[in-house]
Design goal:
Elements lengths: L3 H16 L8 H5 L8 E9 L4 H11 L1 H4 L3 E10 L4 E8 L2 H12 L2 H11 L3 E11 L14 E9 L4 H18 L3 E10 L4 E8 L2 H11 L3 H10 L3 E11 L7
Antiparallel strand pairs: 1-3, 1-4, 2-3, 2-8, 4-6, 5-7, 5-8, 6-7
Length: about 250
């Protein structure tokens, strides 16, 4: 039989736990902020092309990429002009993860796609990377006012915490740039797979010079300056690329 003192120990511990204040529980939805009401997501695929093979890769894409777009919706396909070299970025829209799985299965069994595109294209690619991202809840995917122009792809590495932490300040900074009128917002994406707490913002501009002049004016706009100063406290790093749309890109 256990001594009476040994029996008292678990009872005393239970009493202490009962008296201890309950710790607040952080729900996932509160930790990351509001989410979309549907399962739609975007896969961002980035390929580094061998420097001597970029021209050949673009030719293969232009000739055979219609075989890929027959399976699912392509949002945009660009090559990097500034900020990176020998790099292409393409974005795909899926209804949900089951949709993507079905598409990938169909592609694996598409003999034309495998033979005419994959076989000649793979030797030209040096590295591949993909991410899954959602549009932030306050952004709808936009379109440029006209064909032509250039795209700016800006990547922000935010402090952990999600839109619940930085969403309001980040949205204010985006809106401040929109209100200057020199640029068109295409989309704001927040990663779900890949490097987390990453936000990709796509802008459209009439030309690199038009963008440069607009940025110069924005930097002298007190509203933009104030909004950016408020948002950078949540920022770890950022980088950008100037992108040119390929022939197959719906966003031109």
């Amino acid at each position: 039989m256990l001594p009476l003192r040994a029996l008292h120990r678990p009872l005393a511990a239970a009493a202490r736990l009962a008296r201890a204040p309950a710790r607040p529980q952080v729900l996932a939805s509160l930790a990351t902020g509001p989410r979309q009401n549907n399962g739609i997501f975007y896969e961002i695929r980035t390929y580094d092309i061998k420097p001597s093979k970029m021209k050949e890769f673009i030719e293969v894409v232009n000739k055979y990429f219609h075989l890929r777009t027959g399976h699912s919706e392509l949002v945009g396909f660009w090559s990097a002009e500034l900020g990176a070299m020998n790099k292409v970025v393409h974005v795909w829209k899926y209804d949900n993860f089951a949709h993507r799985t079905a598409v990938r299965h169909a592609l694996a069994n598409d003999k034309d796609w495998q033979g005419k595109f994959i076989s000649p294209a793979l030797p030209l690619i040096e590295k591949q990377h993909n991410e899954v991202a959602y549009l932030v809840p306050w952004c709808q995917l936009g379109k440029p006012p006209k064909e032509g122009g250039v795209y700016e792809w800006v990547t922000f590495q935010m402090k952990p915490g999600g839109p619940a932490l930085w969403g309001e300040a980040f949205r204010a900074a985006i809106n401040a740039h929109i209100n200057t009128g020199y640029t068109k917002l295409i989309g704001v994406f927040h990663t779900e797979y890949g490097l987390l707490n990453t936000v990709h913002v796509i802008w459209w501009n009439e030309s690199p010079d038009h963008r440069a002049a607009g940025r110069h004016s924005a930097h002298e706009d007190a509203r933009v300056v104030a909004a950016v100063r408020d948002s950078v406290r949540f920022l770890e790093s950022q980088q950008n690329m100037l992108l040119l749309p390929l022939q197959c890109s719906p966003l031109k």
